[in-house]
Give the backbone structure.
Amino acid sequence: MTLVDINNLTFEYIDEETHERNRVLDKINLKVDRGEFLAVLGHNGSGKSTLAKHMNAILVPTEGSVTIDGIDTKDDSRLFDIRRRVGMVFQNPDNQMVATIVEEDVAFAPENLGIPPEEIRRRVDDALETVGMSAFKRHAPHMLSGGQKQRVAIAGVLAMQPEFLVMDEPTAMLDPKGRAEVIETVKKLNREKGMTVVLITHYMDEAVQADRVVVMDNGHIAMDGTPREVFPQVEKLTRLGLDTPQSTYLIYMLNSAGIELDPRVLNDAECAETLLRAIKQNRERR
Amino acid sequence: MLKDITLGQYFPGNSFIHRLDPRTKILIIIAYVVLVFMVQNFIGYAALALFLALCVGVSGISPKYLIRGLKPILVFIVFTGLFNLFLTPGETVWSFGILKITREGIRFAAFMVLRLIFLILGTSLLTLTTSPIALTDGLERLLAPFKKIHLPSHEIAMMMTIALRFIPTLLDETDKIMKAQSARGASIDSGSIFARAKAMVPILIPLFVSAFRRADELATAMECRCYRGGEGRTRLYKLKYGAVDALGWVYMAVLAAAIIFINIYFGSF
């Protein structure tokens, strides 16, 4: 079932200094299904953040349409119906927190929605439980680590009980430990709660864990498929200014050196397995 | 120096003072400030000191910590004292060249210094025992009746919350920028006052740029979380007046009565 339906989306803005029209997104067609975990990749300036901002009506299309759960984002009267359905998490956790106490911050969205206090209490506790931050509910946000702050930010949007999460490079400012915490939380939400997730990232190892990967380039969708379909196309990814997961790249290099291996490898374990299999076959042949 | 700022710091606790409704505390502080300015003699200040000492004792806040809050404005207090001491006209008791101290000067200087100290100690006690959220909540409720004359009470409270939220973040950032500039050879802590003031410019500019960028991002994030002003907003915690508040007011009324009595009975000297 389609949750997000992006149809022929074009977005332009006029540069205030040069008065030039800049086309950031060019005739994008994309559908996101309920329960899907979609990763959006692309180098800087490829339009991936702009695409994300169209998913909760922060930006509206210049041409074409974006429909969330059947609601057109151009419909001003239903703006908050859309925003309530879409939880947005941004790059810098410091710049999305409003309150000086964790639980007050998580309560911010339900407070805005005019939900009764008892229900807010329940939602705040649930959301903090889901991201594993219940123990910190009376803490000040600036005392937390980056990964913890970002989990609180996720709890803050979960308290709206959204249909799906759009995450705009949520791990870009975090250390490896914080990144792992956030990605684990997102995966758990997707697998256990069936939350639809759109993850915008430039880390390949994060994109590998998604159900589907979309690669953006210059306002277009350049590639669209499962990680197993997308990542072995190393040359194309390099042309688009992207890396490949290390293990995929290793197999690719071995392949180009004349050793024939199955290129559809995504992680260390699969890579080791493929190599082991090749070595065994080689031994048997001798 | 940045570490000395106690403003907005909050010590959680469960004392009588902590449990007072923030609205009560704000109103009591306003009354207290009025009293500080009403006092006309040193016996009055003794009464205020007794009142404050009782409050601090009950609150469980370490007096040392409270007094440390005076440090950042020490220079200001000293200057106020000296200006009043030397520049008040009246009956001269001591003179040296153009400098002269008058009877009135001594009295005035002592009063001004005491007033400043009592103001700072009282208001610090408020912020130390009240969470910033409770404080802004209290302010929002207290200002709500003025909405009729178009006072944006919700917006004022929201601005205060965000300001308090970003104090530690911006302090951290200032620290980082200072280190980055020193690493590139900027001398911030040496030279004359003017040289130091000039050295602040390359710190303040990046700080402002970053603050504006933060503000922009925060506004977007708030919109994403369905923020649309105070209209129809509910709160996680509701403020309720209780028996402690009545007791707080009784306490305050006793102090006010005492001060007025002392003023009338002993007059001003």
